[in-house]
Amino acid sequence: MKEVYDVIIIGGGPTGSTLATFLSRAGHRVLVLEKEKFPREHIGESMLPFCYDIFEELGVLDGMKANFTRKPGVTFANIDGSRSSHWCFSRVINGPQSLSFHARRSEFDELLLNNSRKAGAEVREEMQVTKVELGQPGDNAMVYVQSRQGEALTFEGRFLLDASGQDCFMPRMLRNQKPFSRLNIRLALSSHWKNARLDETLSNGNIRIVHIGGEKLGWIWMIPLKDDRLSVGLALNMNYAQEQRKILSKEHGAREWQQALYLQELNTSPLVMSILGEAEMYWDVVSNGDYSYYAEQKYGHNFAIVGDSAAFLDPIFSSGIYLGMVAAKMVAEGVDKILRGNDYSAVEKAYADMDGGYKVIEELICTFYEPNSIALSDLQDNGNFSYDKFESAYSILHLLLAGDFFKEPERYLRAINTLRSQEMIDKYKSLTGHLDAKMEQKVCLMPEMQ
Ligand SMILES: Cc1cc2nc3c(=O)[nH]c(=O)nc-3n(C[C@H](O)[C@H](O)[C@H](O)COP(=O)(O)OP(=O)(O)OC[C@H]3O[C@@H](n4cnc5c(N)ncnc54)[C@H](O)[C@@H]3O)c2cc1C
Q1: How much distance in Å is there from the Cα of 243 to the middle of ligand 1?
Q2: Does residue 231 share a domain with residue 145?
């Protein structure tokens, strides 16, 4: 007789493996189908402090501490580095959670996936889901798979979770994907570098974001990883990238134009070049589109869509992994209730909470690109803030950069609004911490390793 799983999960990234661990622990029979063989490389290496508690709950905190770089904060800079500001999580978060992580994704994703195996999930790699039949209410889901060895297999599950990342398996199948209309399409180009000359900010573990203004509407990230590895990425407005493509592909060829564009734009920043100096790339540039989208219908009688497959927002604030994992935790609790008693209330609440958080992040992203907003690199601590009381927009912005998206969306939206126009900036100068005079900057101190 054919076996029926309680839950089948498409994708073994951070979202899929988190779903698998929580649902296996709740006593369900879980199958994860992953098309790749891990370890595999993936974009998205800098994590928010709000992930910390989930790592602890999953039981991977020791593995995280042993294997990955610690991240005390975020540093924003303008293109030449003449203005920069350090956002230190320990100003608003007490305790070990203030020290986050950067991780090479091949190792991080494998750690989480192996952890879900330990929790009891059956994980089958090199298995690509090609078709799904959901049936009518009361039916199980039928999942059709092609193995890398060429075998065609069918699995049956009481509930199906789509955590297929930007492949967006179910939204494509249901044809219900929509763009976040206020966000532009961007192209991201990235690589890892060796022999970079890390400055104090990067040596100390901060991610550095360099803002590129004008028509390029973009930014450069620098993420210090272990073993002499600096991840350097470039995100650019797609219209600008396409114009450059026409010019650069004549000189460099149809395939090499992306690498040429990447190096051209890094070269425009004296700050970035002072760090890359004689550094070399580990591999040729990798390209990722970061089209922002959401699925209009995210769950139904026997399925739910979670993580990047459900929605993706411009990655400027490093929110993706946290959003995927926190949604996985909430949805896993909800699916447990559905499987035990047909109770959909927790899943409904999980998606309503997630929508509130996405609105806050969307607003923050729009503000970052808005030419009339105050640049984050120009905001800094003038020493007069009481972070403990969280009363100022400045401390709220620290909390947002740490991942506090869900607690008080309305209040946080108001705080973001204070950055949006000169009138608001003037009105709320004391609230935002905006300074006209240039102050000496201090890097985030690395709290004692915890
Ligand atoms: C340019 C850029 C920079 C980013 N930087 C950051 C950052 O610094 N910090 C951060 O937190 N986030 C960042 N992100 C976002 C981050 O990469 C994602 O949010 C995160 O990986 C989402 O996890 P996931 O598990 O939902 O999807 P994924 O990690 O993409 O995992 C999905 C898995 O599903 C598998 N799969 C897909 N289709 C199928 C199928 N049909 N059958 C079987 N398996 C399948 C894939 O092989 C993959 O392993 C960035 C994104 C971009 C584009």
Answers
A1: 28
A2: no
